[in-house]
């Protein structure tokens, strides 16, 4: 059977039965005249759909690659930020520790300064008392005494003073 034979035959011309009396099984539309344009149209549509599917698959693959790259970039940025946050926390902790140590040092130094000030005030008061005692002793014994001498012993006074003779 040739293509021309298929074109010229109609439904009436095609037997519905085989030669031995059985009904013919199969597609009856193949015997229509318009089967060829219909088949070509279906082929073109199928080919177009396959091309569309292939293009969409390629685009999906490209989008998937881009998403993977973006995910990798975000992961890197996240790791960098976590590192920076960790470093800031450590710096903040170290800063608080240094502030605490500095505060303790200041308190210790203030306490030592207070103790030294008290000690200095006691020594100053003792010096004044000794100077007063030396003046009194000089008045009674006629010893030479340097005025305004702040040292305990008049014999080692290093200020340039005029000596007075107590009478």
TrEMBL record:
UniProt region (Disordered), positions on chain: 1-20
GO cellular component, one term: receptor complex
Location(s) in or outside the cell: Cell membrane
Record key words, sorted: Cell adhesion, Cell membrane, Coiled coil, Disulfide bond, Glycoprotein, Immunity, Lipoprotein, Membrane, Receptor, Signal-anchor, Transmembrane, Transmembrane helix
GO biological process, one term: leukocyte cell-cell adhesion
Transmembrane segments: 38-58
Domain of life: Eukaryota
Coiled coil: 88-133
Membrane disposition: Single-pass type II membrane protein
Major subcellular location class: membrane
A molecular-function term among this protein's GO annotations: low-density lipoprotein particle receptor activity
InterPro entries according to UniProt: OxLDL_rcpt1-like (IPR052332)
Record protein name field: Oxidized low density lipoprotein receptor 1
């Amino acid at each position: 059977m040739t293509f021309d034979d298929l074109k010229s035959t109609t439904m009436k011309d095609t037997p519905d039965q085989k030669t031995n009396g059985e009904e013919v099984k199969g597609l009856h539309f193949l015997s229509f005249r318009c089967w060829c344009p219909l088949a070509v149209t279906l082929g073109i549509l199928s080919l177009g759909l396959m091309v569309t599917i292939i293009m969409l698959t390629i685009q999906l693959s490209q989008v998937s690659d881009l998403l993977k790259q973006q995910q990798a970039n975000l992961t890197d940025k996240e790791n960098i930020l976590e590192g920076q946050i960790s470093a800031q926390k450590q710096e903040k902790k170290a800063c608080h520790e240094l502030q605490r140590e500095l505060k303790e040092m200041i308190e210790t130094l203030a306490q030592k300064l207070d103790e030294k000030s008290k000690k200095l005030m006691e020594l100053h008061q003792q010096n004044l008392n000794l100077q007063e005692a030396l003046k009194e002793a000089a008045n009674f014994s006629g010893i030479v005494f340097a005025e305004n001498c702040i040292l305990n012993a008049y014999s080692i006074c290093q200020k340039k003073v005029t000596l007075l003779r107590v009478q």
